[in-house]
Amino acid sequence: MSKFVDVNLRGLAPLVAAEVIYGLQERIRGGTKTPPWHLRPVCELARTRQVSTLAEIDPASLCRRRQALLNALTTASRRLGMTPESERHKDVWDAAAFGRSGSLNFTGVCQPWLREAVKAAVCDELPRRRGVQARGQMQTHINAFVKLSDSLHLQRDDRGAHPALLERQGIVNFSNRLAFLAEQGEISTYTWIFVARAVRKWLSQMRSMGLTRPGQPLHGLPADFMLLTQDIPDEPEDSEAGKDLPDEVMRELCARLDVLEEKSSREVRVAVDLLIDTGRRPFEICHLPYDCLTRDANGKPVLLYDNHKELRLRRRLPIPETTATLIITQQERVRARFPATTPGRLVLLPSVVSNPEGTKAISDVLTQHRDWVAPLPDLTLTTTVHDEGKPWPNSSASTRRRSSPTPTGTPTPSGTRTLAYPSTCCANSWTTGR
Predict the structure, then answer these.
(1) What angle do CA 230, 224, 167 make, to 5 degrees?
(2) Maximum CA pair distance of the chain?
(3) How far apart are CA 418 and CA 433, in angstroms?
(4) Is 408 helix (H, G, I), strand (E, B) or coil?
(5) More confident residue, 313 or 115
(6) H helices of 58-188, where?
């Protein structure tokens, strides 16, 4: 006879009981397990304090995991009936209403007229943004207007509260403030350029959207309140000859892939293997479908992947037989793990968390990659070169297929190239040192 562990919902307010049941339903739909010994204290706390909704519970008395459970239950009930139209009037948006993860925060823009204009611009732009970074890109543009808002607040007597009173001098002051922040090291030169470009582009876009008409947020905003091309500094000259990793570094990384698998999982190891072999974006590799391998007319293997950023689906990339064998082996592993799921629903690299049917892809490859690379010993390479742009005489063939034929390393004034590793390594790029 099976044993059932009860979670008592008696004594809870009707809305609280409904929130608990609906939240559990959503967690089950997402493949997340909810242990009763985590749920029971949440219900006990709600019953003891006689709250009318889960949002009234102070989570401070709960442990971290139970706080996460409480947050998941309240989030599920809050999102019930949520629409883009209902969300766009708030100062903090739940990006799930727009098909994204995370949130969009407008509270840093302190002038109400400017905040409403930025909201309207984001609402207009967001559907045209694709890829996993869309929400983050929107937030960086919002943060650019936070810089403009701070400048108006600090440098005007009216704190920038009246758009009709603004003038060209406000833009000059804003440009000077960005230059000052860059000089003080509070922002980078790249951030300075990005903020100036974003404000210039979006102010122009807001005007084209009709936000300067009567009744709109920017009504009365003078035409000269606009950044000009000459207000944006030039980008620093890129002196790097190329950003490919040297063959020696690739060999060192490939020799330690077993360590990566031990620290993470087989799926992360396969993902990094495919990243090395194909040069595709991490999101594209992580979300490969189970049936991502096919053959061309000559019987050569071809990888099928989706370029979500450009909305170009089922792209075809020729790959070597070794990579095809890696994919076939992973397919067999996935089929053995999830025999009851139809192949059309499976992903090639299923997550090991909250994924009972194998339909949820891994998502933490960059984090796992960083944790793997950081402890590796420093590696310094010195190779003599004769003429810039010619192949390095001492470089040898890599044990892995290169994803790009561009030269690697940066010529130094002394005629040598050096690579600092891994201290200059981040999740997305490697930087050559001098």
Answers:
(1) 110
(2) 82
(3) 6
(4) strand
(5) 115
(6) 64-79, 84-87, 112-125, 134-155, 168-183
Return left, alpha or beta for 394; rule: phi > 0 is left, psi -120 to 50 is alpha, else beta.
alpha
Please, where are the H alpha helices in 126-186? 134-155, 168-183
Rounded Cα gap, residues 315 and 151, in angstroms = 46
Question: Three-state SS for 205?
Answer: helix
Please tell me the distance from the alpha carbon of residue 132 to that of residue 143, in angstroms, as a whole number: 19
The pTM assigned to this predicted structure is: 0.68
296-340 pLDDT, tens digit each = 999 999 999 998 777 788 899 999 999 999 999 999 999 999 999
pLDDT of residue 243: 65
Q: Compute the distance between CA of residue 409 and CA of residue 306 in angstroms, rounded to an integer.
A: 31
The rounded distance, in Å, linking the Cα atoms of 198 and 144 is: 7
The contacts found for 15-22 with CB under 8 angstroms, 24 or more apart, are: 15/52, 15/53, 16/46, 16/51, 16/52, 16/53, 16/54, 18/77, 19/53, 19/54, 19/73, 19/74, 19/76, 19/77, 20/54, 20/73, 22/76, 22/77, 22/80
Task: Mark 106-131 as b/e (b = at least 16 C-beta within 10 Å).
Answer: beebebebbbbbbbbbbbebbeebeb
Element containing residue 266 per DSSP (H, E): helix 266-278
Residue type, 33: K
Q: Cβ distance 130 to 309 under 8 Å?
A: yes
- Overall average pLDDT of the 109-136 stretch: 90
- Whole-angstrom CA distances from 12 to 60, 214, 327 are 20, 50, 51
Residue type, 401: R
Confirm if 106 and 118 have CB atoms less than 8 A apart.
Answer: yes
Could you tell me the pLDDT band of residue 400, with boundaries at 50, 70 and 90? very low
Could you count the other beta carbons within 10 Å of the beta carbon of residue 192? Answer: 19
Cis bond before residue 289 (omega within 30° of 0): no
Query: What is the distance between the alpha carbons of residues 330 and 335, in angstroms, rounded to a whole number?
Result: 9
* Cβ-contact 104, 139 below 8 angstroms: yes
**Start-to-end C-alpha separation, the chain:** 70
CB 105 within 8 A of CB 139: yes
Phi, psi of 100 (to 5 degrees): -120, 170
Residue in the structure block whose two tokens are 């939240």: 23
